[in-house]
User: Fold these one by one.
Assistant:
Number 1:
Amino acid sequence: MSEGDSVGDSVHGKPSVVYRFFTRLGQIYQSWLDKSTPYTAVRWVVTLGLSFVYMIRVYLLQGWYIVTYALGIYHLNLFIAFLSPKVDPSLMEDSDDGPSLPTKQNEEFRPFIRRLPEFKFWHAATKGILVAMVCTFFDAFNVPVFWPILVMYFIMLFCITMKRQIKHMIKYRYIPFTHGKRKYKGKEDVGKTFAS
């Protein structure tokens, strides 16, 4: 390999200014993401606020319904991945290798592991809203469409998809919202101590 063949290298073997700028920008972005991780409620409030601003923008502009529909389908897809287990129980019926969800009362507790973790769900949903917001600044994405049809189609799609997901949950007996292992109380302490 000669000098400058690797990604981001300039002619003299040092990283170029542009490469260093975008690397540093990526590091700062990742740092902010890392700092926001423990603040779940704040992150979701900001995302809902962005969503509200986006909806107001679409309402005031009276357009970009296709972009909004695509955003809704994307969020529905993310939500289904968030509700689904990492390992699909329907694929695990015949094989006994790997982790599986408990199916009986006396089986060992196994926490629900999602296909899409909450942080990645939030991050993808927020990025989707921001991309949709940017799309509203370009007339090329303002395709004329009769929006009530899109709303009805989205509602139908949402109901059918959620019905299928709920049937899957019932069939394989899993609940996507667990808060840890159950704690059982032992016998009550009567408060008497033995004196010797």
Number 2:
Amino acid sequence: MLAVHPVVPLVSLHNLNYIKPISPHYKTQHEAVKSLVDVSCLDPGRTLQQCICYERGPGFIWSVSVSWGYSVQLYPWAVAPKDLVKALTTFRSWRTRSLGPFTLDTRQLNLDWPCDLPVLFFLDHAARDGVNWNWTTTEYSRDLKQENGCKSPSFSEAFKVKTVRVKAPQMAPAEWKRAPRRQCCKTVRIEGGEILLVQINQCKPGQSSLSQ
């Protein structure tokens, strides 16, 4: 749910004592939530805001979904934006502990079929950009517990990425007083393909944020 937060500011989190840590990088829920709270101090308005872009290379296309300050989902195939904004069913209903119905759009997750799963990255480091103080740089490292069980060449290429580095301008509070929309982003692979660089910007005239 946190990976596909709607286009509204993050206000609060509830019932965290009843779920597993929100990030596999931490052993306790307190540590995991603290990382989200700490990064939110850098850019409160952007916290958990989803941005979608695509990386193309020789013989492959990746779909990249960034939840700022929390996680990155890298799909080694083309996924339509209308599907990327739906939450993967990694959770159950509160009272019945069943897989629905929910009050939000969801996508079924088949844990037994690794070729259906995205490559997951979680927040590892965050700081103000060293060049432009009004920008932030957040880095997300791959969940090392996730194994590449899919033999697709596109998956093998995706698993070469060790870090996703996201650069974004600080979101002005006035943004929420306008008609809210997702911002645009672009990607490029650097460091021999081990780092996927994502830059988030306001959409330019004629440019689509894809998820609108």
Number 3:
Amino acid sequence: YLQASIVRSCRKIIAVGRNYAEHAAELGNRVPTEPVIFMKPASSLLLEGSGPIRLPPNADEIHHEVELAVVIGKRLSGTAVTDEEAMAAVAGYTLALDMTDRKMQDRLKSGGLPWTLAKCFDTSCPISALDPPIKPDAIGPDTRLWLRVNDQDRQSGQLKQMLFPVPRLLAFVARSAISMEPGDILLTGTPAGVGPVRSGDVIRAGIDGLLEMTFSVA
């Protein structure tokens, strides 16, 4: 699975909101009792090295959110899928950003509306060009994600802080009658520390000891 091929073959991105308790709290949200699921289109993907993150015109406040991304290698489907069966569909892991128009999201949330306009703009899902993806057994509960803007620390969190771990997320999606195809991506939520970026900023993010990626903001 070459990353460029994943970008070409991805049909959908399933994303998870509020999967770290501290992040839910920093945005004034309740900690969920089951996964909060939304989607981003494949057109939002931006492969590292292929250009900058482009802020939408008239956007007031675009936030960074660093996330572990799960790359699907085999079709995942079935409303009786177990956590173990769901993991068998994983090709590997990589790193992505869920760029979010925060003020737009707040307006949509206050009106009880979907988050689409806040989450789905072009280049809103920058993704590492690491080839091949990280093997599943290389990731553990102590694995740390981090993000810096202009060399200033912004986000840091370990996977054990997830409210719902990867196997449960995958099985939850399948059991909700949403099939995932090879090349599809699951974003697993972001740790606390999200914040705004502006044109000219440089975002660096990584998974300790496994990968780093860099994106500029235009």
